[in-house]
Amino acid sequence: GSFHIFQKCLPFRVKVIHVIRQSFVYDILISIIRHLISSKYVERIHLHGTNFEDLHKELPFDILPEEYGGCGPALDFDAFWSLVDAQEPSFVESNGYGYLKTKKKQTGFAK
């Protein structure tokens, strides 16, 4: 399922996942998911909440934006979404790829 894809099939290596300002619902969800994924990935998920001191131990100040106690540039979500919107034609084109469906029905087990 989805967890297998996350753990085994991503085209990149997940070294660490930092989650900040998560709600209590997210904490509950992660506590459930931790039982479904490998211990290697459990160790790579760090929940910081609003405790930026722990985050500062993991990431340098100069790459963190001001909103998270760093000295990097402030986050500009409008600019980010403008970039995403500009890529919409590429997303639409990518959605056209996939598998061809055959009209032949398979019966029994594949040999």
TrEMBL record:
Stated name of the protein: CRAL-TRIO domain-containing protein
Organism: Ixodes scapularis
CDD domains referenced in this protein's UniProt entry, alphabetically: SEC14
Entries under Pfam families matching the protein: CRAL_TRIO
Domain of life: Eukaryota
Domain named CRAL-TRIO: residues: 1-76
